[in-house]
Amino acid sequence: MSLSADQTVEALRAVGEPTRLRVLSLLAGEELSVMELSRILDQSQPRVSRHLKLMADAGLIERFPDGARVFYRLSSDLRARRLIDTVLDLLDASAGEVDDRRLEAVRRDREAAAGAYFERVAPQWDRIRSLYVCESAVEAAITRAAGDGPFDRVVDLGTGSGRMLTLLGKKAKMSVGLDLSQNMLNIARANVTKAGLDKVELRHGDIFATRLPEQSADLVMVHQVLHYLADPAAAVAEAARLVMPGGRLLIVDFAPHKLEYLREEHQHRRLGFGDDEMRRWLSGAGLTPSAPIALPPDTDGLTVSIWTAERPAVAAEKVA
Fold first, then answer.
1. What is the phi-psi region of residue 280: left when phi exceeds 0, alpha when psi lies from -120 to 50, beta otherwise?
2. Do 68 and 260 contact (CB within 8 A), yes or no?
3. What's residue 127's pLDDT?
4. Secondary structure E strands in 40-84
5. With contact defined as beta carbons under 8 Å apart, do 308 and 289 qualify?
6. For the residues of 103-170, what is the DSSP string, one character each?
7. Which of 141, 168, 252, 279 is the S-S candidate for 223 at Cβ 3.0 to 4.6 Å?
8. pLDDT tens column, 180-226
9. Percent with pLDDT over 70 in the chain
10. 209 phi/psi in degrees, rounded to 5
11. What is the Cα–Cα distance from 203 to 180, expressed in whole angstroms?
12. What is the pTM of this model?
């Protein structure tokens, strides 16, 4: 299906302005908040918001509130994306160099804030997690959702203190844990040793680019990581890439909530994830989602959600 003549004209009018072209180019890389776009473009937030509204009305970008903040990303409509890609392909490669440098500064500030937080809380990481919901109930549900095993290879992305490895490691012939914080990895190493697990590899690694072989693990876990990330969908796609035919991806995170203070005090970027959103990401990555599991807190607080998805085993027959 193509855009109508009127829709095409409206979209081209929305694109035909230098600032809006810059915004589209930036959003082609990742979703950004109004505040971040204002900083990169060096323009006031009201002015940037007007540009964003015009492009959203034209169907070029999508607006999604997350707590007190609003984020924007390129439209998921394939017709709109085709037009955007065509326009951006016409731009000179050097046109966005200044914006790219400012975007990199935004990313560095994000990473520095998150890194400082993780280094500060690493010794008490498991205690902080336990404030949200009964940890024993969550871990029992994770164990059930992961399955009986045994697993040939388990991968834990954003392993933190290594709790998922110690929880499920005895069911695995080999486990790999990745994390960007060396302090966290040191704690994970101590916990893994204490648990008597010797077939565990802990490495410094990026959840967006793990450098692990495609379809190489029969269980991949992402436990309480996505809400810290600027592009959680990309992390889900990378995690799914690692799942072998017949294997499973297990994601644990929070359901949507309104505890805004978690942004400032604990560096949460997203205030939870909806089931529909997660289902789209998992299906888009080639996996078959199962029914989600919701674990409400014992008192007022956060609901923990567990999402699982499998790569169809028939894929192995196609390769053969």
1. alpha
2. yes
3. 56
4. 61-66, 69-74
5. yes
6. HHHHHHHHHHHHHHHHHHHGGGHHHHHHTTS-HHHHHHHHHHHH-S--BS-EEEET-TTSHHHHHHGG
7. 252
8. 887 788 888 888 988 999 889 898 889 999 989 999 999 999 999 99
9. 91
10. -145, 80
11. 9
12. 0.73
